[in-house]
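#lab-general

N.A. 3:47 PM
ok so I finally got the sequence cleaned up, no stray characters, all 148 residues accounted for. can someone with queue access submit it? mine expired

B.Y. 3:52 PM
send it over

N.A. 3:53 PM
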Amino acid sequence: METKIPPPIVTLVFGLSIYFSRGIFPVVEFQYAFYLGIFLLLSGFSILVSAVSLFRKDKTTVNPLSPEQATKLVTDGIFKYSRNPMYLGMAVVLSSIAVFFNLLGGIILIAVFCAYITRFQIIPEERAMRDLFSDDFDKYIKETRRWV
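B.Y. 4:20 PM
back already:
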C-alpha cells in the first residue's frame, strides 16, 4: 500500500480541518441546513454500516491497509452502485460536517479528501484486487463506478 494512514483517521483529520477552517471562509446559511446535515450524517453512516456488514457477511477483510488479505470480491448490495461505498460514506459524513460548520471550506476539503483517498487508497486497493480476482475484478470495474 502507498499509505499507512487508516482512512478513518484521514476522515477525522479532514473533518477537523473543515471545522477549524470555518473562520477562513464566508458563512453560508440556508433554510433547513440542520435537517440536510442530519440527513447526510445518517446517510453516510448507513452507507458505511451497509458496506461493512456485507464484508463481515462474506467473511472478508475490512482492513483497508491490507487489501491483499481479501478472500472474496464483494459485488452485491451497495457494492452494485459503488466500488468504494465505505469511502463514499466517509465523504457523505464529511458533507454533513460541512453543512453544519463550513459549507464553502467543506466543499473544497471534501474534493481534496476524495482526490487523496483515490490516489493513496483506492488505486492501490484496485491493484491488489486485480491481482487477487483478475477477470472478475475487471468485469466489476466495467459495471460499477469507482465512487457513484
